[in-house]
Amino acid sequence: MPDSVHHLAGVDWIIIAGYLAAIVSFGLWSGRRPRGTRDYFLGSRNLPWWAVGFSIVATETSALTFIGVPALAFGPDHLTFIQIILGYVLARIILAVALVPHYFRGEIYSPYQLFERAFGPGARRTAGGFFLLAGVLAAGVRVYVSCIPLQLILGFSDADIGRAIALFVALALTYTLAGGVKSAVWVEALQFLLFLAGGLFTLVYVPGLIEGGFGRALDLAAAGGKLHWLNLDFTLGLPFNLWMGLLGATFQVLSSHGADHLIVQRVLTCRSVRDGRRALLLSAVIILPLMLVFLLVGTLLWVYYQTHPLPIPLPEARPGVRKNDYVFPIFILTALPAGLKGCLVVAILAAAMSSVSAALSALAAVFTMDFYRGLARRARSEAFYLRFSRASMVLWAALLAGVAILTRAVESVLNAAFALGGLTNGAMLGGLILALVWRRGRPGPVIAGMLAALAVMVTVYVQWQTVVAWPWYTLMGCLVTVVVATLVRALLNSTGHNPVSPLHRPGPDCGPN
Prior knowledge:
This protein has 513 residues and is an all-alpha fold. The protein has a single domain (4-494), classed as Up-down Bundle (Sodium/glucose cotransporter), CATH 1.20.1730.10. The chain has 19 helices and no strands. Helix 7 crosses helix 16. The termini are far apart.
């Protein structure tokens, strides 16, 4: 690969350096002096709903939107990913109506305390363990894909990509470590606006490079079949289809936004049930047009490169990266004038850093509140738990960096990120549904169901990932969890075991322990 530094002018580097300095400073300022774990992990439940809504979108989209979604539209998937987004919107509406009120019944630090209310501490820590496993894996994938443009920009070789990963994680860690979730949410809200601006700018700029403008570009895209978006065929594998979106993607987001602390932590920072609902619904309003913007960017890039040869040949596909994942970064580095290149690189950095800071805050919260604090034999001061929270965040940052380096062994950046979450998301969603429906019971059935779901989904991913696409993973895992847990519960009932444990009947407020 040519030395990509030659594609950036001095003004681009000034813009990039200025952004990094400004965003870290803003993060340190916005989350200054947290007073305890409630402030550090919940933002004292005093953040405005609109900022939380922006943060939710920034957390879930990240650099995968900037790189992976245009790559989908550039390639043979065309605009069919729109069908998946329909499920994303539907799930948020369901969660806002049905689940958000449960988050505000008492002082909870994670959704896994709902497991404890129903089944005891063992179920809570099982669900929390599933989150930690999936969270560090999926976040590691996101860190790696974020380093693809950095590799092009800074000229890192494959052997030195670890340096880019370390730089990335260290920058996000700096302000998240200092201010916790409050810093993360405010920075993510700002970063959302930056990468949205980058997408909109590209959508307007590319047609200006095509003879005939936007209208002619759409005509050429239509002639090439690039505007095809609807597929009514029901299949478990790719290509994307409507049923995969309305069923599979809906369950995926019911889990990722309802049982996964990465998103739930942001909702928990809202002031009330009403504000929590507003934040989720705002993200529903944003996500469809946002994804459409980046899909159209990929479509326009396809039209552009039909008449303009790539100045840098697309590198061959390698483990972890498809050829099309390089298209948008190469366009930014070679087709934009000085200054604008730096602005678009800033947009990618904003998208990427938001996912890293969100993961660090959520992982540290679950590890501290659901595991260490819950298992502590004696009470500790808030100052101690705050120090422990920060130490655990540093640990998770190191683990994220390690996973990111190993991510080169997976086959597809975008699909791997969603699939890794899907391996455990179904189990967590199934367990959460049972906690809300059964309300009380022994932990054995739900733990058995979740473990069975994990075993089944690992088998599906290893043996049949080309047959079953990732949008179905969460639905399948959820069904396995519910069915196995129900059968185990029925078996225990038939043998005379009382499904309700007298040792745990917590009140409406479990507290942090």
